[in-house]
Amino acid sequence: MDSDRLNTFDDTDRLYLEQLTTILSDAYSALHSPVRDIYLAGGCFWGTQHYLSLLRGVLHAEAGYANGNIPNPTYEQVYTDTTGFAETVHVRYDSSLISLPRLLEMFFKTIDPTSLNRQAHDVGTRYRTGIYFTDPDDLPVIRHSLKKLANNYSDPLVVEVTPLTAFYLAEEYHQDYLTKNPDGYCHIPLDLFAEARNFNP
Predict the structure, then answer these.
(1) CATH number at residue 81
(2) Do 5 and 40 lie in a common domain?
(3) Structure pTM?
């Protein structure tokens, strides 16, 4: 478009072009944003949330309940193991700082992937291990990471991998529990927290 023709535009035309440019720019930014989400179940979410939040590239980690069958579950309901929910951490991360394979590699350090519905002393379906995704493009990456992990074990892996169907934030007292209660219960070895603090992908 030449400048003479552009000068014939009235204010309405210019406003339309400005709005269109903004919309296209926002859409491009969203499509190419390095910010990603993944949902990881690793037993009691107190330790899992604290550990993942320490990793460089993780923007925030939230404790919650994933892939159950009732709306707005409470901790007491999830604890009965009748709702189908797993204690899960929603991880939002910057993929330009930490890739999904690297994030999963660090997550795997905190779990026994061969233990069904149990991590350390925590037993029940709510403590199952799982990787729940919202982007189908993540599935082959997850499968490849699990295939590599399986080489380290003689027993089969029992990590659940499925699309995220539901996620509800846990109650406020569960959020950042180990930050609020440094001596609180945690199934993850303390040396892994030190490793997470020093982690540089």
Answers:
(1) 3.30.1060.10
(2) no
(3) 0.84
CA angle 76, 81, 82 (to 5 degrees): 95
Which element (helix H / strand E) includes 190?
helix 190-197
Q: Hey, which residues are catalytic here?
A: 44
Alpha-carbon torsion (19, 20, 25, 26), positive or negative: positive
Residue-number span of the structural domain to which 1 is assigned: 1-32
Residues 117 and 23 in one domain: no
Q: Tell me the C-alpha distance between 50 and 193, whole Å.
A: 8
Domain count across the chain: 2
The one-letter amino acid at 96? S
Cα dist from 170 to 61, 87, 141, 167, whole Å: 12, 9, 28, 9
Residue 115 shares a structural domain with residue 88:
yes
38: its two tokens: 């993944």
Asked if 117 and 127 sit in the same domain, the reply is yes
pLDDT digits (tens, 9 = 90+) for 48-75: 999 999 999 999 999 999 999 999 999 9
Could you report the per-residue pLDDT of 80-132, keeping only the tens digit for each? Answer: 999 999 999 999 999 999 999 999 999 999 999 999 999 999 999 999 999 99
